[in-house]
Queue: 4 jobs
Job 1
Amino acid sequence: MNILVVNDDGIDAVGIKILANHLKKYGNVVVVSPDRVRSASSHSIIIRDSISFIESKKIEGIKAYQISGMPADCVRLGLSLLNVDFDIVFSGINDGLNLATDVFYSGTVGAAREAMFSGLPSVSISTDFNCFDIVNNELDSVLDYVFKNKLYSKEYVLNINFPNKGFNKSLGYRFTKQGIKLYRTTFVEKENSKFIEGHSVLTLDSNKDSDVSLGKEGYITFVPLGLDQTSNYLGELRKYDK
């Protein structure tokens, strides 16, 4: 099996080194990563400027490349420029959870979605900020579970999140739905007419069967994310057809 590993935290990130090394027992691993942090880049791509694609020695024992583009570009360039017939794409491990509506901002999920655009199964994996101890302890079990049960598919991105901060061990695995987070962000002026993000007022849904709630309870969550974002309100709106 040929496995492409990408991320949005950059080639120097802890998470991508952990993921790439843990995936080696499943096949041939190749890394393509941004040359800098590209967090919250969503599914953006570079289309009008050139993109550098340079071999990197920053992940010992694994063939790796760093690019000047976005996380989704890692998939696009990796599939185009490397003479490898990849079977699956893994994105992560992100330093920060990608739950609920985080998936719209996430470069980690965006890169995995790009793989789905290209007809490949993909898996995105995230953990809470600076929570790599639980990843090191449980990632092997998670990956064995994914591969043994062939949980990946060309029809969806399998979005996996480790539990919220504070859990040294997960309570188990739960397949669930994407929850809802609503944001209202304030910005603080740092200098004349230049602002930086400040506090975000955050509203979480109360649905107990969601990645948000189950992550808070200590579970590793698995959410299949599809391409069709048509709202359930379509049926109601069709009465206005004319």
Note: Helices lie at 14-23, 71-81, 102-105, 107-117, 133-148, 211-217, 234-237.
Job 2
Amino acid sequence: MRKQFVVIGLGRFGTSVAKTLTSLGHEVLALDKNEQAVHDIMNDVTQAVQADAREEDTLRALGVRNLDVAVVAIGDDLEANILITLMLKEMGIPYVVAKARSAQHGKVLEKIGADKIVYPEQDMGIRLANNLIRTNVMDFIELSLDFSIFEIIAPSKFVGKTIGNLNLRALYKINVVAIKKGKERIVIAPGANELIEEKDILVIVCNKKALEKLPD
């Protein structure tokens, strides 16, 4: 479903979000008060405008309140970040995502009604740490403090065996929710007879302690 987004703040994070949403086929209005930042992205989004998003009249004139999702990607000005998030919620935008720099900042955003709070620096730090600890971890999504979804290259000891043979749930307390076989094929919810092959990527749900027990 095609959605309409506004991305406010065109630093590295905001620019990445805006370009990615556009590449996925959505309409994106990108805002920043920096002329160069707007100029750099104008060919990669639906519309790019130089504006001070702290001015509510400006946001209304641009039709921001009629959009589906707002992303507040401002990171260097906490006051502006909080003020804009609050204004967007009061304007009635259905879903507001706000970038936070710390847990305390996140708590403030939560209290003023942000629907989703993201911690780009923290998330990247967690991803890097996991990748450094286990070289076969390709990516992960944290579901809670205890459980995450991990993408791992199939350990050599798993190759040539089926999900049932490995008895992963009982031995390692992990659940295999998908197997990526090359770039073209993904097996969703693989059954007990699914064979694990060399270079398969396993998408698993488990806690970090269980991940540490897996063979390389």
Note: The first strand starts at residue 4 and ends at 8.
Job 3
Amino acid sequence: MTRRRPWARRTAVIAVSASALVALAAPANAATSTTQVDYATWQKDCQTVMDQALPYIQQRVAAASGEKQAIVFDVDNTTLETDFGFSYPQPANKPVLNVAKYAQEHGVSLFFVTARPGIIAAPTEYNLEYDGYQVSGLYVRGFLDLFKDVAAYKTAQRVDIENKGYDIIANIGNSATDLSGGHADKTFKLPDYDGQLS
């Protein structure tokens, strides 16, 4: 007769209890939050949006008549693979980089408006340039900006870019806070999968 070890039974009970705790802690919309998007799907979905952005930007560049044109980009999960790039420098989001390269090669200035804090401005700018973006300006949040609404903060930065004489022909980001508030001729929203990608 095989005797059961007492610790084996306790381990099973602990495992069940841990599973129960995870289930209790799961949000009400657990179906969407537990379905994680994979890299290939994200890249395909980003490419779909950039396939719409590129012809528009080509058209705007061709029709330019001396005005200073600019594109405003978000950083995290827009220009950089923040949730998928597990190293530093983080890799560029290739569909976005390809559009950015076309724009910068045709005289369009690239500005980056991010909710990242100012303390990481230098590493962020280095990362963007390392990946091939020509940074005409990087806007990060100062200490007081951390207490402001993100959408209002980002809108104010676009106003500042316009005040420098630029026509913002496109604003590209993956969150509603990146794109709301106007001050861009057209917006292109990349997927965030209901907030899964910050």
Note: The beta strands are 68-73, 109-117, 135-141, 166-173, 187-189.
Job 4
Amino acid sequence: MTKNIIALLCLLLLLHGCASNKIIERSSTSLHDTKEARLEKLKHIQQWQIKGKIAFLQKNKRESASLFWQYHQDTGQQTLKLTTYLGINVLTLHTDNGQHRVEIDGENYQSDNLEQLIYSLTGLILPTNALNYWLKGQVYSAADTISYDKQSELPNKLTSYYQGNIWQISYKKYQQVNDVSLAHQLSIKQNDLTIKIMINQWKL
């Protein structure tokens, strides 16, 4: 009788251990959203802010700066600042009502075409319209394609057809920000131009 009770207790403990393992396995896989669930969350993000560093790498040109970028999707308002490592202002952008105002060296310039304005003033190619989407791992147009990591289901590469050129965006170092996984390192390539963005802080 005693042996039967001991055997029964052992069996119950074994079954409880198996059940516990199954619960742990299920909870560990639920730490990551599916790609569909993540994209649904991104649709509801109406404003964001990033702080970090940005570098522009070309054959005969290398530029880098500290980056601050705040964007309000519902109003289209944005503020973008590039500064040197010494804190010296390189460029300050304010967008309101479709008009972009850029301040460089104490002078103000205004246009409704932001990318052309930045290029004419600095010689830098910054695809700001598409970057609003690329930063979050979203396609800019229906022609864009994303490849996902099989395990995490997070974007690792995005191919975008923007302004007549093919852009390749790579994503690394995802972290949870307000229950959404966002990359903190991006590499953006188009022909001989590479733009590297390292994000130290996301705010949603």
Note: Helices lie at 2-29, 35-43, 114-122, 128-134.
